[in-house]
Design a protein that fits this description.
The chain has one domain. The chain contains 13 helices and 6 strands. Helix 2 runs parallel beside helix 7. The chain is globular and about 65 Å long.
Length: 468
């Protein structure tokens, strides 16, 4: 049935499918873990009950998302042995220890303190519980560090030598981990995780503000989320620009595909805003472009020459249309996030942050935007690296296991069915949890009493003016 299908393409689709499910959960859990640490820290500092209530609300959501991220990651890693055994054999001496370090440091740290964070609120002292929350947050960041070290090395390999059987052998672990693209990729991904979480938290807060079920708690989380959007979105755009310049230096063909530059431009390249890449004719049809702006952005010179895909053999070109559009989706969402942050600042200045229904509707609509941007960025990075798995050294076609297309297609169909059932149910459950923010006992009152000891919420509240 599947004899006419290409095993390499099916294996790539399978890995893309499973990693697309996986990447959204760690991106979310990285941000939520840090958010939980901030909430508990603010509670211990101010003794305001609203922070503890929000901590208890979001820790359950974090636990479900964390569990789905672990499960999807384990399943994904098996494909290195089933579909990509040649890649595992050749690159294993480098990537194997790095992934092992991720388990030994990050996963054990998260697992060791997760139970205390989730169930130890009334069983340990405030200091130890806060330490557990900090360790879980730190563990998610360490996990991202090791995984991005692996991916960055595949993008910009360094610190290795080749042995007689074609394996990548470590020579300098510092150069391997801190390869040329690693710092840019790590910063860009962590900021993306924080923005993803900020817009989910903002959407949940906005949803409850529109429904007026828990205006005080919802308003607090919405305010915190919009602060994050306003501060981090411009930083992320700057970090993305720096990452793009690094990519131009080390992976210029990827940038050519991102920009849609089929032809070289010796006197300044235009910035193509939109168009339809025509790979057969080597041009972008119906292009809307700004003359010389690409050279200004990438080289800081209007007349700087930029090479195009006409300098690259056809067999070494990535799929241009996919990279071209995924890059624009990522950038477009980034600027939409910046717009939301600026809009929230204006409403905050006007004193209408918690009362502007149009802002709240926009925030709800932007709730999934971070996930879409993360996926679009991943597609840009990974598809733009093609036709290599280890850039410039190991072709994807040479990384495949000796496996037939029917076997890959059968497992792909099984993954699609199981993933949509299992992770669809998990996502539905998370949405149900988000919709169940407990109603404020006295919605028009302020934060509640200052407690003198313990970490258990107090039973009574006191009046005060509504905080915008």
């Amino acid at each position: 049935m599947f004899d006419n299908f290409d095993a390499e393409l099916l294996a790539r689709i399978q890995f893309a499918f499973t990693v697309s499910f996986h990447i959204i959960f760690p991106a979310f859990s990285i941000g939520v873990a840090s958010y939980l640490a901030v909430l508990e820290g603010l509670y211990l500092w101010t003794k305001k009950e609203v922070y503890l209530e929000l901590f208890n609300f979001w820790k359950t959501i974090f636990a479900v998302a964390f569990g789905m991220g672990v499960v999807s990651g384990i399943v994904m890693s098996y494909q290195f042995g089933t579909n990509w055994s040649v890649f595992s054999d050749k690159a294993g001496p480098v990537i194997g220890p790095l992934m092992g370090y991720e388990v030994l440091t990050a996963f054990f740290l998260e697992a060791g303190f997760l139970g205390v964070m989730l169930f130890g609120l009334k069983r340990v002292g405030p200091g130890l519980h806060f330490l557990a929350t900090l360790m879980v947050a730190l563990g998610t960041l360490i996990s991202a560090t090791w995984i991005l070290a692996v991916n960055s090395w595949m993008q910009t390999p360094a610190g290795f030598a080749m042995n007689d059987v074609g394996q990548f052998i470590p020579v300098d672990w510092w150069a391997i981990v801190f390869n040329p693209s690693f710092p840019y990729r790590l910063v860009h991904m962590v900021l993306a995780a924080y923005l993803t979480t900020a817009f989910v938290v903002g959407a949940v807060g906005a949803w409850h503000l529109l429904r007026k079920t828990a205006p005080h708690r919802a308003g607090k989380m919405f305010s915190m989320a919009m602060w994050m959007a306003a501060i981090v979105a411009p930083i992320q755009i700057f970090a993305g620009d720096m990452h793009g310049l690094n990519t131009l230096e080390h992976q210029p063909v990827k940038v050519m595909a991102m920009e849609g530059h089929f032809e070289s431009h010796p006197n300044g390249a235009p910035l193509i805003l939109f168009g339809i890449p025509n790979t057969a004719e080597k041009r972008v049809d119906y292009a809307i472009e700004i003359p010389k702006l690409s050279s200004l952005i990438l080289k800081h010179d209007l007349n700087a020459p930029l090479s195009g895909l006409d300098t690259v053999p056809d067999e070494l070109e990535p799929p241009v249309a996919i990279v071209f559009w995924s890059f624009r989706v990522m950038v477009g969402i980034g600027f939409a996030m910046l717009g939301m942050g600026l809009w929230s600042l204006w409403c905050r200045y006007r004193g209408t942050l918690r009362d502007n229904d149009w802002l709240h509707r926009a925030a709800v609509a932007m709730g999934p935007a971070g996930f879409v941007a993360v996926l679009a960025g991943w597609v840009t990075t990974e598809v733009g690296r093609q036709p290599y798995t280890v850039y410039g050294h190991l072709l994807t076609a040479d990384s495949l296991s000796p496996i037939g297309a029917p076997a890959v297609a059968t497992s792909l169909i099984a993954f699609i069915i199981v993933y949509f059932l299992v992770f669809g149910a998990g996502t539905f459950y998370i949405l149900r949890l988000m919709a169940r923010l407990p109603r404020d006992p006295m919605a028009d009152l302020d934060d509640g009493p200052i407690r003198t000891s313990g970490i258990t919420p107090a039973a009574q509240t006191k009046g005060g003016k509504h905080d915008h």
